[in-house]
Amino acid sequence: MKALFAASLAIWGTAAQAGVLKVGVTLHPYYSWVKSLAEGLPIEVRAVLPGEIDAGNYQPSPADIQKLVDLDAIVINGVGHDDFILQMVKASGNTHVVVLKPNDEVPLIRSTRDGSVNSHTFISFTNAIQQTYGLAKALGALRPELAPKLRENASAYAKRLREIKNRAAGELAHAKLTRVVTVHDGYSYLLQEFGLELVGVVEPAHGLVPSAAELEKMIDLIKREHVQVVLSEESFPPALLGVLTSATGAKVYLISHIATGTYSADEFEKTMAKNADTLVQALVKDPKGP
After folding, report:
1. Confidence band (pLDDT; 50, 70, 90) for 56?
2. Is residue 266 part of a domain?
3. 211 shares a domain with 141
4. Within 13 Å, how many C-alpha atoms sit on residue 165's CB side?
5. Number of domains making up the chain
6. Is 176 within 8 Å of 60 (Cβ atoms)?
7. Residue 6 lies in a domain
């Protein structure tokens, strides 16, 4: 594994630091990963953003900036999902915080719409495992006395994620359908690791409702490519989904990119297990055929 977060960790060296290690996170998946790593250890995991707010629609507040003042480290996406955070750190006056970027350790793919980096690397079992291992190593470098337990916790967490992934992969190996359209451009990494094809994305950009012309183009694409499954977020307007499905005959299944809700250690596991079950239902169990 290449030298993860080397530039940031150089600030700290390898000396043990006294007291509770305060680690901030910007996204729900990162909270689950770090909280799972921190089990049984003197590590405080602090969510910077309110749980009910999607990072894509977030506006920094003074109260949230205050959460950064005494952090020892902060885990950020760093490839377009939470660009606002560095200015917030600067505004907090915290000059010693170590910025950890788990995306430095995973291959990035491009958005289907504009070719920019797809920042949703966390919606992937494989990436989650690799990034969790990387975070364990980084936090262990900050507190060497915690490193053995961090490695142990990372291994246990990775095992749980592998079990979920492997169960789904076994069933999806027999998928009757392998091509889908998604409403949100956040599932490319998940589809890629299961060998599924993303034919198109309905939203013109993250959080933007398609125009009538854009929706018509997507309807034409679904018909032309004979796509039978659309993966949608709960927040996407039901009326537009109705137009899409009535015009194409495609069936809609709900899936989540884990952007809002209550922060918890098991949120990522539970939601990703549900996402995997949804893929199995949509592509293996429901389709007619041999």
Report:
1. confident
2. yes
3. no
4. 20
5. 2
6. no
7. no
CATH of the domain at 276: 3.40.50.1980
Sequence-distant (≥ 6) Cβ neighbours of residue 274 within 8 angstroms: 256
CA Rg value for the chain: 20
Phi first, then psi: give them for residue 160, nearest 5 degrees: -65, -40
pLDDT at 208: 78
Residue 17 pairs in a beta bridge with: none
The answer as to whether 109 is a domain residue is yes
pLDDT reading at 138 higher than 80:
yes
Residue 4 falls inside a structural domain: no
Provide the domain limits for residue 95.
Answer: 12-167
Predicted pLDDT of residue 290? 59
Return the residue matching tokens 């507190």: 143
Counting DSSP H helices and E strands in the chain, the numbers are 10, 8
Helix/strand/coil for 248? helix
Average pLDDT over residues 235-252: 93
Tokens at 261, concatenated: 């809700």
pLDDT score at 234: 86
Is residue 188 scored above 60 in pLDDT?
Answer: yes
Residue 168 and residue 174: Cα distance in Å, rounded? Answer: 10
